[in-house]
Every structure is written in C-alpha cells, then in structure tokens.
Design brief:
Blueprint (H helix, E strand, L loop, with lengths): L2 E4 L6 H10 L4 E5 L12 E4 L5 H5 L8 E4 L14 H23 L3 E5 L24 H18 L3 E7 L1 E3 L7 H9 L4 E2 L10 E3 H13 L6 E4 L7 H12 L5 E2 L3 H13 L7 H4 L11 H7 L7 H16 L15
Helix pairs in contact: 1-6, 3-4, 7-11
C-alpha cells in the first residue's frame, strides 16, 4: 500500500508526509504546489488541482491505499461576504467529492479527512464534545460541514472515513490572523480583546495534527469524528499578557463590550470592509474549548504542545522573518508538561 496525500504540500500535509517517509512508508503528495522540502527525496509529487476531476483521477490510487484529504481554502486571506461561497466551496466541498469519487473508482476505502471546529458555531455546551450541535456561522464552516455529510453517505457505502475537527492550527510557516496581533504588539499599541478576556482560547499544534492523522491510519481508520485541540487552554488575558511580556512590549490589553464590537464588525462586514471573518469574531468571547478525550481513548492521541508556547513560538518566527534571519525550529519543539 501507499499513502496518498491530497494537499500534502500544505501546512499539515508536509509534516504528515515527513512523518510517513521517516517511518519508511511510500508517499505520494498530490498538490497544486511543490515546496523545497527534504522529504521529496523519498516522496513522489504530482501537480494536482482538486477542483479538476480529471486531474484527481490521474493520481495513481489503488485498492488498499491510504488516502488523506488535507486540501482546503482557509479563513485567510480575508474575503468579502459576496465572494465567500465561491472561494470556499470549490476546494473544500467539490474537491472532496472529486477525491472520494476517485477513491471509489480505484476501490480504495480508507480516508482521513480534515474539517474544522467551525462547524459547531456558537457554544451550546462546554467543553464541546464531538456530539455538540452543529450550526456553522459562515461559508467556511458550511463548506466543511457539507463534507462531513458527504462522508456519512460514503461510510454507508462501505468506506472508512476518519474526520478531524481542529481548533486554530498554528506552527512554523503560518501566521494568518495572528500577524495583526503581532504588529500591534511590536508597535506598542493597545491590544483590544473582544469581551473581557476571561474566556480560554485554544490552539492546536500542526505537529499534533499530523500525528493524529498518522494514528488514525494505525488504528484502522475508525468511522468517527475527533476534536483536535490543546490541553488546559489559558484565558485570553493570560495568553496575550504572557506574549506581551515576552516581546518586551508596552502594549496594554483592552477589554471591550463584546456585543458592541461584534455589532461594529458586522456593520463593516455588510459594507464589504471586513476586519475579521464573522466565523472568527462571533465566537471570540465565548468559551470555545474542545474536549479531545475521544482521540486519546480511541487513537491513543494526546496533544503535546501548550497554547502559551505555541503563540510565543509563532511570534518568534514572525520576528525572525521581519528581521531577515532564520527562525529556530526549537521554539516549536516544546511539548506540554
């Protein structure tokens, strides 16, 4: 058998590919991009746009192969309201349709597929288990929920599909919305929080995501959904306060009336001048903490990285790039205690 990684040159995919190659597995990366990564000395690469059914069909999937869908359009770069559906759905939903149909033609039955915690929408109960009600707040979450419904259809036809719902994934090579935060801190400007900052904020490390995908394969690809998040996430106020202190910044944290900020951001969004995606700010003052115990029970997966360390490491990488020097990967190698 071999491992076929759609979107395998991306943020999570490159770390999963590296893990599998290190394990001596045969790996095929199917991605529209090809970065200069050392594991390509032993992994094959095919240029594939998942929105093109013919291109997906050309990937040499065979019965017995392990397939991973890591391709996705994310919440960055920010999109205006009118363009969100056409931005997210071609890759996130229709690309998944193309991959599963290609698997079906080849007789392949095992798929690991990443969706998002954004399918949950507003917090109804906390911590959020995998049976939390789903009510996405925007096109990104809706596109991912549709793929989960698709997975349900194909499971009934005999496929094995493990679904992963990560919180905000951070690690080397991705900043996204964090860049705005880092710029404020560098400029010693006030850092506004949506709400009081007493609610916890949970990340998940890209390394922990890659390990979860590998363990799902090792466990036989259970027909289950799994939350991916850190353990014991700290309050926003502490998380940001520690970062400001680490940076030696004079920035102060400013609590705000969450409802007023969200109304203002809603107005800007309606005027096609979004500062954040609604799927981000509408839950920013809620206790959105994922219960990740199911992954431990069924896969033996335990997240290894703390939110505090991940955020400071991301800031360190941002500073290193800004100053034109190489970031130390050691900053991302601090597991949770």
């Amino acid at each position: 058998m071999k491992h076929v990684l759609f979107g395998g040159d991306g943020f999570v995919g490159r770390h999963l590919a590296q893990k599998l190659v290190a394990d001596g597995e045969e790996v095929v990366v199917a991605d529209i991009a090809r970065s200069e990564l050392p594991h390509y000395a032993r992994a094959a690469h095919m240029s594939v746009d998942v929105t093109d059914p013919a291109a997906v069909r050309r990937v040499p999937i065979a019965a017995g192969d392990m397939v991973y869908n890591l391709s996705a359009k994310m919440l960055s770069p920010l999109q205006v309201r009118a363009k969100r559906h056409e931005f997210f759905f071609p890759v996130n939903y229709h690309g998944t349709v193309n991959i599963i149909e290609a698997m079906d033609r080849a007789g392949a039955k095992d798929l690991v597929h990443f969706t998002t915690d954004m399918i949950y929408g507003h917090t109804v109960k906390t911590p959020m288990t995998e049976d939390h009600p789903v009510a996405p707040l925007g096109e990104y979450g809706r596109s991912k929920l549709k793929t989960e419904e698709l997975a349900g259809d194909w499971r009934r036809r005999g496929m094995n599909i493990s679904l992963f719902r990560p919180r905000l994934i951070i690690g080397p090579g991705r900043l996204g919305i964090l860049e705005k935060l880092f710029k404020l801190i560098d400029a010693n400007l006030p850092v506004p929080m949506i709400g009081s900052g007493r609610n916890p904020y949970q990340f998940i490390s890209v390394f922990d995501c890659a390990e979860a995908a590998r363990l799902a394969w090792k466990a036989g690809v259970p027909n289950e959904a799994y939350n991916l998040g850190s353990l014991n996430p700290p309050p926003v106020r502490k998380l940001l306060g520690d970062l400001v202190k680490h940076a030696g910044s004079k920035s102060i944290l400013v609590p705000t009336p969450g409802w007023a900020v969200k109304k203002t951001l809603d107005l800007l969004d309606a005027m096609n001048r979004p500062l954040m995606d609604p799927e981000q700010y509408l839950i920013a003052d809620e206790e959105c903490v994922l219960d990740v115990s199911k992954g431990k029970r069924q896969l033996g997966w335990v997240p290894q990285y703390r939110d505090e360390d991940m955020l400071i490491a991301a800031y360190s990488e941002y500073r290193a790039k800004k100053e034109g020097r190489a970031a130390s990967s050691a900053a991302f190698a601090q597991p949770a205690e």
